[in-house]
Amino acid sequence: MFGPYLRRWSLVADGEPIATPAARLLPVRGESGPAMLKLSSNPDQQRGAALMEWWNGEGAAKVLAREDAALLMQRATGSGSLADMARNGEDDQACRILCATAARLHRKRPGHPPPELVPLPLWFRELEPAAATHGGILALSLETAHALLADPVEQVVLHGDLHHENVMDFGPRGWLAIDPHGLIGERGFDFANIFTNPDLSDPTRPVATLPGRFHRRLEVVAEAAGMERRRLLRWILAWTGLSAAWFLEDADPLVEVDLTIAALAAAELAR
């Protein structure tokens, strides 16, 4: 499946193919150096590819070519890992890097963003039936989401899935984002995902759910993102409810991470 694009863009394979639920990837080399060839017909992935092209390498990996279901982008070759930093005593710094990356992505830039970006009210649509079915903290998350979405501030183009595995070390180019969902809405949404990661990638090595870590992150992220603490808490509660709804639909045990962080946010809001 990679062959036509290897020929068209004068690429050679530079590693083994990688399969994910939404895409097929192949490390390659071309005239611009190390790159990643990504094939996906998934609407979220295609929308994200269009957004990365619009970002034009500012805060995100630079797109070298895009056609139909294929995306060619620069490849991260640095040795750093935000997940490893978080697990090895440098969580504060990892959080600050994520916040700085979000700030670059949120900047205003010339031209109109891709028209297919999804508004946050539409993105949250699956929380309502889950809250009706399960109640409890999900009902509180839904109530919080409704209030935030009814009164948005600082609306920007959003990454939509900004966490430790989606911001990578690009060596001299620094830390850059990959794999956006491509949303539009209040900027506070993009910081909430920090609070459940990197545990959602590997719950056997927890960071987010360790005692005291939530409250420390709250201080670090609120300062680094320039956000009012209570509004950040409300976005965390709204986001973890939506994420939990998706995991519950799949009967995925990772839902416990979301529910733990949601409960911490709700408790802090009630103080």
Tag the structure with descriptive keywords:
single chain, alpha+beta, Aminoglycoside 3'-phosphotransferase, Chain: A, domain 2, 2 domains, 45% helix
Protein architecture, described:
This protein has 271 residues and is an alpha+beta fold. It folds into two domains: 3-74, Phosphorylase Kinase, domain 1 (2-Layer Sandwich); 82-270, Alpha-Beta Complex (Aminoglycoside 3'-phosphotransferase, Chain: A, domain 2). Helices cover 45% and strands 16% of the residues. The chain contains eleven helices and eleven strands. It has helices spanning 3-8, 43-55, 82-87, 91-106, 120-123, 127-134, 136-150, 189-192, 213-225, 229-249, 255-270; strands at residues 12-13, 18-19, 24-30, 33-39, 63-67, 70-74, 118-119, 155-158, 167-169, 175-177, 183-186. The strands form three sheets. Strands 1, 2, 3, 4, 5 and 6 form a six-stranded antiparallel beta sheet that branches. A hairpin with a 2-residue loop joins strand 3 (24-30) and strand 4. Helix 7 (136-150) packs across helix 10. The longest helix has 21 residues, at 229-249. It is globular and about 60 Å long.
Strand content: 15-25%
The ordered H/E elements are HEEEEHEEHHEHHHEEEEHHHH
CATH top-level class of the largest domain: Alpha Beta
What's the count of strands? 11
What does the secondary structure layout of this molecule look like, with pairings?
Layout: H1 3-8, E1 12-13, E2 18-19, E3 24-30, E4 33-39, H2 43-55, E5 63-67, E6 70-74, H3 82-87, H4 91-106, E7 118-119, H5 120-123, H6 127-134, H7 136-150, E8 155-158, E9 167-169, E10 175-177, E11 183-186, H8 189-192, H9 213-225, H10 229-249, H11 255-270
Parallel strand pairs: 7-11
Antiparallel strand pairs: 1-3, 2-3, 3-4, 4-6, 5-6, 8-11, 9-10
